[in-house]
Amino acid sequence: MIHLDATRFxxxxxxxxxxxxAGIVLVLCGVAEGxxxxxxxxxxxxxxxxxxxxxxxxxxxxxxxxxxxxxGWFTVLGTGAYHLLSTVDGPLVIVPIAALYALAAQGRIQxxxxxxxxxxxxxxxxxxVGTGDVTGTAVFMLTGWLVAVLALGAMxxxxxxxxxxxxxxxxxQERLRIARELHDVIGHTMSMIHVQASSTLHRxxxxxxxxxxxxxxxxxxxxxxxxxxRATLGVLRQADEAAPTAPAPGLSRIGELISxxxxxxxxxxxxxxxxxxxxxxxxxxxxxxxxxxSLTNAVRHSGALHVVIDLHHGEREVSLSVTDDGHGAARPPxxxxxxxxxxxxxxxxxxLSAATGPAGGFTxxxxxxxxGPPRADRRSS
Length: 381
Fold this sequence. Notes:
Distance between the termini: 91 Å
Structural class: alpha+beta
Number of helices: 10
């Protein structure tokens, strides 16, 4: 039994589609013009000129991506001249209609309307002159077709513009969400420093050996940092959005993610390397979100059965990778989720890469640096 792979039979796209359409139209024009040769296959000057015009118009279509307006005008005028010379109603009009749709899909509405008007006026003039193949019904039908083509092209342009705007909006929302989370994490930490320093200062009179000058500096620095942080990032929080009351998630909660993912039918294994030590809250949050998004993508897009999470704790950075054994090619390589993870890594001065493996599957790798532990100053006695 012969099995046919449907993925091998795909319609051409891009420049190949233009070449295919131009070739088909040229063949159909040749069949139509062949009727003018007669039994003796005699080609007069009018037939030769019609053939040359048809070839030039079809050859111009693949150039529309570089010169859309010029190709649009050339195909419209060339097709008009062709119909003046030819005595058959050939299918060459498909070429300027395709160019007209492409211009409308690019948002060049004024040029598209001008080209459509020239076509309608030309056909209408032919009807008034009394050309046998052109009637008022033909003018009416052509006008309807051109209006439909313009409408479809404008709809295509609107959909593309909406998709681009939606992508930019998603990226902006992700940046705002990252900023709000940084505000919550850093703001909470600095608030605790401020409260502890104030409490210590309150007890200073009973124990003057607690270095009051250092505590005053800590208090003032934390107060100034909170003021600057809230002034810069506080405006990013929406007015109707309640402040979170739970602590920000971190690497300690990855076990919960794994349990949730396993309930979705995915086998997840985690491997840890290096010495586990407390990390900055921003790094904890970014690592958690990257793993979370990677597991979500594996469940939604890859069709994977197994996922391996590799965590490496270094002295000044955390490296992690999430690898699945699914269909890597089915994963959108530039989706908003990957863009959000990349923004998180870049916000910390790190890097993130996401790509398919040579044997399939999909891997997300991230490197999240952070300042090393401060060295203790030793004073000579």
